[in-house]
């Protein structure tokens, strides 16, 4: 019953304060799908390369059509909350298992792509990763023990004794 009252209270607050729904939004994860193809990878492609060589440079294609056996599609999409989705495509065309040509969207360099992953993120102050000498001494002072602790007396062996698993003199 209490949860029903709380739930109805939430709906009445949002109806009275319509701006609150634009401030509080649910978290949505970043969605990265497909093959990331950079400008450097596309520059390494040359006509006449075999399918294996193209796969070594670009990775396995996202789409291979049964109806277009001589065409490989590399598609990349990146969706992040609060930003416009990114989509890039590279299509490789083969003739007799050799690369005839390829068509691509504007591709970023590897450095540009990595920078775009962190764009728009808010990073807090980076904490120091190494303690100073004064901090180490203060830590030692706080955690000093006054006297060594005596180990507890050993627990007595159980009163039951078990017979040996094998009888002496038996052959294996």
Report what the structure shows.
- The protein is flat.
- It has 172 residues and is α+β, with helices and mostly antiparallel strands.
- The model has no long low-confidence stretch (mean pLDDT 79).
- Helices cover 30% and strands 19% of the residues.
- A hairpin with a 6-residue loop joins strand 3 and strand 4.
- Strands 1, 2, 3, 4 and 5 form a 5-stranded antiparallel β-sheet that branches.
What does this entry show, briefly?
Helices cover 30% and strands 19% of the residues.
List keywords for this structure.
single chain, 172 residues, five-stranded antiparallel beta sheet
Order of helices and strands: HHEHHEEEEHH
Instruction: Return residue spans where pLDDT drops below 50 for at least 5 consecutive residues.
Output: none
The number of distinct helices, counting runs of at least 4 residues, comes to 6
Q: What is the arithmetic mean of pLDDT? A: 79
* Biggest sheet record: 5 strands, antiparallel
Computed Rg: 33 Å
The termini sit apart by 71 Å
Shape field:
flat
Number of DSSP-assigned strands: 5
- Give the DSSP E fraction (strand runs of 2 or more residues): 15-25%
Level of helix content? 25-40%
Based on helices, strands and strand pairing, what is the structural class?
Answer: alpha+beta
């Amino acid at each position: 019953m209490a949860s029903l009252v709380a739930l109805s209270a939430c709906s009445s607050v949002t109806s009275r304060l319509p701006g609150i729904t634009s401030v509080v939004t649910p978290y949505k994860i970043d969605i990265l799908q497909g093959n990331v193809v950079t400008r450097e990878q596309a520059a390494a492609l040359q006509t006449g390369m075999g399918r294996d060589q193209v796969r070594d440079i670009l990775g396995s294609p996202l789409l291979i059509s049964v109806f277009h056996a001589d065409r490989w599609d590399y598609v990349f999409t990146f969706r992040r909350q609060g930003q416009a989705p990114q989509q890039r495509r590279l299509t490789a065309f083969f003739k007799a298992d050799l690369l005839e040509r390829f068509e691509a969207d504007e591709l970023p360099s590897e450095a540009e792509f990595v920078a775009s992953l962190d764009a728009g993120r808010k990073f807090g102050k980076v904490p120091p990763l190494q303690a100073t000498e004064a901090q180490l001494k203060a830590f030692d002072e706080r955690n000093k023990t006054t006297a060594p602790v005596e180990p507890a007396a050993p627990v007595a062996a159980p009163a039951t004794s078990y017979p040996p698993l094998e009888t002496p003199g038996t052959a294996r």
